[in-house]
Write a structure and sequence with these properties.
Layout (H helix, E strand, L loop, with lengths): L2 E5 L4 H12 L3 E5 L5 H10 L2 E4 L9 H22 L3 E6 L7 H15 L5 E6 L1 E3 L10 H10 L16 E6 H13 L6 H6 L3 E4 H11 L2 H4 L13 H15 L8 E5 L2 E8 L7 E7 L4 E6 L5 E5 L4 E7 L9 E4 L4 E5 L3 E7 L5 E7 L11 E2 L1
Parallel strand pairs: 1-2, 1-3, 3-4, 4-5, 6-7
Antiparallel strand pairs: 7-8, 9-10, 10-11, 11-18, 12-17, 12-19, 13-16, 13-18, 14-15, 14-17
Helix pairs in contact: 1-6, 3-4, 5-8, 5-10
């Protein structure tokens, strides 16, 4: 079992690195503030690899940046060199940006190169965000997620001069997986390129609008997330929403739009979502009642019946095609995908209310319902 020493292992990035080491079959050795020098040296005596995630992000004293980000980094790297242990320092894209923080990171990189050890490397990280990131410290995403979780959209502010800015974002879970995989398999060559491939550059204004929207989800009691309209790639949208939900500290409560009549109920669970315009609904049918009797030009629907006793009837719009009239009674949990131009209906032939989950490839548009009675 490979042992990986994670310096700053209780910090934002460090805790995810330590977790991934464990997940990938290694043993994390966690060192952070408050632990003794003896414990540090003991860890260096055991470690097969060192990942240095320690660092100072904020301080009113510029000299503290160099004390923590340069002097301590050189000491940690020198200990690894003395013991012949591979060492990876997590630097920042802010290195050399003429701020005390950026200059300290750049100076640390220079000092590491002076050590002249091929086993000592560094990578630069973009704006890392994710669960447990600290508001007002780790990233603007953390600050906005916290404000959204407290339903304070007024605190989600965007400087007008930043309206057109594009910000590179890197999710902490993806970052930790990539780094730990490289260290666990001794394959850190090309690690910077792999990390860069995980970065997505997006409009700061679009992210701002997204978090303002998050802050009103429960207040509006609206299950229609409409997340796709913000122009954010699906995989990043998912990670930003997850970060917000984690900051919330409890499950998000949404009340589905519910329609009821003598036949049963129809509840809209999700519209839109992460990268698509699909809709998911919950449909109940009372005994001896049926629903449907229509077809679509382009929509595709998947009906998932949870129990037996539902009769699904199908009728092609064009009889000369490959489809014929069909009728089937469900016999337990099953799903049916229905193509366009095929009229479909279902009827409850049991003595109790039955339910079906309906996935549709598009959200319902009242102006263009694409639904035709047959």
């Amino acid at each position: 079992m490979k042992k990986v020493l994670v310096l700053g292992g209780k910090g934002f990035v460090g805790r995810f690195l330590a977790l991934c080491v464990k997940e990938q079959g290694g043993e994390p050795l966690v060192y952070d503030l408050g632990q003794s020098e003896d414990e540090l040296l003991s860890f260096y005596g055991e470690a097969d690899y060192v990942i240095d995630a320690h660092g100072l992000n904020r301080s009113e004293n510029a000299s503290e940046f160099f004390l923590v980000n340069v002097d301590e980094t050189v000491r940690f790297a020198s200990l690894a060199k003395e013991r012949g242990i591979p060492y990876l320092f997590l630097s920042s894209i802010q290195a050399g940006n003429r701020t005390p923080y950026g200059d300290s990171k750049f100076k640390a990189e220079q000092e590491l190169e002076k050590l002249g050890d091929k086993g000592i490397r560094f990578v630069r990280l973009s704006n890392v965000f994710g669960p447990t990131c600290r508001p007002g410290y780790n990233s603007v995403i953390a600050t906005w997620a916290d404000a959204a979780a407290r339903r304070k959209p007024v605190e989600i502010t965007l400087n007008p001069t930043s309206k057109d800015a594009r910000i590179p974002l890197l999710y902490v879970g993806d970052l930790a997986e990539a780094i730990v995989f490289g260290t666990m398999h001794s394959s850190v060559d090309g690690l910077q390129e792999k990390i860069d491939a995980l970065v997505e550059k997006v409009s700061l204004e679009s992210v701002w609008k997204l978090f303002v929207h998050f802050a009103t989800l429960e207040e509006n009691r609206d299950p229609i997330l409409g997340l796709c309209s913000f122009g954010i790639p699906p995989f990043l949208l998912e990670r930003l929403y997850g970060t917000y939900l984690f900051a919330l500290g409890r499950p998000l409560v949404l009340i589905p739009v519910d329609h009821r009549d003598a036949r049963g109920s129809f509840s809209e669970l999700v519209k839109g979502g992460f990268g698509g315009e699909a809709q998911v609904s919950w449909n109940t049918v009372n005994p001896s009642y049926g629903k449907g009797g229509h077809y679509h030009h382009h929509k595709i629907e998947r009906f998932t019946f949870l129990e037996g006793g539902m009769r699904l009837s199908l009728k092609p719009v064009f009889p000369e095609g490959s489809w014929e009239d069909a009728s089937v009674v469900t016999e337990g949990l099953c799903s049916f995908d229905i193509p366009p131009f095929l009229s479909h209906s279902f009827r409850n032939e049991t003595n109790k209310t039955q339910g079906a989950v309906i996935w549709c490839s598009e959200t319902f548009n009242p102006g263009d319902p694409d639904t035709y009675a047959c």
